[in-house]
């Protein structure tokens, strides 16, 4: 069988016709998130290393500062480099969500980020609020697992930004 025919027959949990959509599950979202950590995180780290030098990558992280570890005292992080890295990462994620509705990891998992009511493209404000919501979900840790108990599988950062993640 030719590759063209295999590709045409393949179906990836297509949404139900009409207004009802199939929300993406926990494992699909985790696959997308983990892939994005590498596909976005590594290039951003390399850019930061080129701009701020090798030492900025090996300084203490935010968790070290919060926990008051020895690494935070000996290799204090550069706040300008940290803010630049966060802002650059936010621009990349928000740009992907706004323009193509998918980051590379979400594309791999065949899911996309949409507005929760219209199932259309998210606004820039929603994309930025969603990125900030990731930090809220990470701090509470429960924020990522709320989707397991909800029928629409929306997590805390989805609820804050009024977005949803659905299958393509």
Structure notes:
- The protein is built from ten helices and two strands.
- It is mainly alpha-helical.
- The chain has one domain.
- It has a two-stranded antiparallel sheet.
Summarize the structure.
This protein has 168 residues and is mostly helical.
Q: What does the secondary structure layout of this molecule look like, with pairings?
A:
Blueprint (H helix, E strand, L loop, with lengths): L2 H7 L16 H14 L1 H12 L1 H4 L4 H6 L2 H5 L4 H21 L4 H5 L2 E5 L8 H17 L15 H6 L1 E5 L1
Antiparallel strand pairs: 1-2
Helix pairs in contact: 3-7, 7-9
Give me some keywords for this one.
168 residues, mainly alpha
| Largest sheet geometry | 2 strands, antiparallel
N-to-C SSE string, H for helix and E for strand: HHHHHHHHEHHE
Which sequence of strands runs across the widest sheet? 1-2
Radius of gyration: 18 Å
- Note the total helix count: 10
Shape: globular
Oligomer: single chain
Distance between the termini: 25 Å
Q: How many extended strands?
A: 2
Q: Overall mean pLDDT score? A: 83
Proportion of residues in extended strands: 5-15%
Low-confidence stretches: 10-17
Helix content: 55-70%
Structural class: mainly alpha
Number of domains: 1
